[in-house]
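Section 5.1 Outputs to date
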Amino acid sequence: MAETSSSVYSHIPNGITIARLILAIAFPFLPESWHLEVIAVALVTEFLDGFIARLCGWTSYLGQVLDPIADKFFFFSVAVTWMWMGKLTFLQWLLLGSRDLGVLFITIGLALAGRIRSVKSIKAQWLSKLTTVLQYAALLAVLLAIAEPLWILCIATAITGTLAVIQYGFIIRGRLTQQ
C-alpha cells in the first residue's frame, strides 16, 4: 500500500536535501582526504531527493524551494573552500558560479521589488540541470588535478549557466506579465 503525502515518510526527500545542507556546512572543516567522498555523497543526494519525491508522490513546496538552495550552498561551500586552498582561481569560481550568481541577482531584484511571492517556485530547467552536471564534472577535475579539462568545463559551465539564467528570466517575465 502506498503511503500518502501526509505520512511521516513523505519527509524523506526533504531530509535528504537537508543532509546536503549539512554537508555544505561541514565541507570547509573536513580533511581534504574526505573531499571526494563528500562530493560523491552530495551528488547522490542531488539525484535521490527529487527522484524519491517524484516516484512516491512526495513533492512539496518546501522541497522545491530547499533543493536549489542546498545545491547552490553546497557548490559555493566547495568552491570557496577550494579557492581558499588555492585549488580554484577567482575566475574559475566566477565561471562555475555564473548561473548561481545570476539566479541570486534575479532573486534579490524580485525581493527588492516586492515581487518574489508572485513568481513562486520554478522547476529546474534542462539548461540548469546541465549546468549542475558541468559543475560537478569541474569539481571532479579539481579533485583529479586535471587543469585543461577544468578550464573547458569552467567555460562550458559559464555558457550553460548564463543561458539558464536567461531562460529563467523569460519564465519569470512571463509569469509577472500574466498577473
